[in-house]
Amino acid sequence: MTASVPRMTVGFDGDQPVVDAAAIAPLLGLDVPTFQDRMRSGRIRTMIERGEADDAGKLRLTFQTSDWRVRLTCAGDGSVLTLTRAQMGAPGRDAGPSPA
Length: 100
Hints:
Elements: E1 2-3, E2 11-13, E3 16-18, H1 21-24, H2 32-41, E4 45-50, E5 59-64, E6 68-74, E7 80-87
Antiparallel strand pairs: 1-7, 2-3, 4-5, 5-6, 6-7
C-alpha cells in the first residue's frame, strides 16, 4: 500500500541518511523506545539503496520487522517522494526470506 506522503524529510550525517524515529516507529507499529531498542539490537532490518542512471541522487530506505516493511523513496535533498507500507506475511503475500 502506498501511503500519502507525510511531511517527512530525511536528514544526513555526512553521506548517511538520518530518519526521525518518531516518524518511522508508528509505521512499524512500534513506540519510539521499542523502535530504538530494536534498531540497536538489529531486530529491525534496514537497507539503503542509492539510485543510478535516471535515479541518480535518489535514495530508497527500507525498514523491516517481522510484521511490517516501510520503504521511503527520497530526493537528493532528503524530501520523501513516496512511502510504502506493507504487512509482512499477510495472506496471499510472499513474506520474503526467513531470517537465518
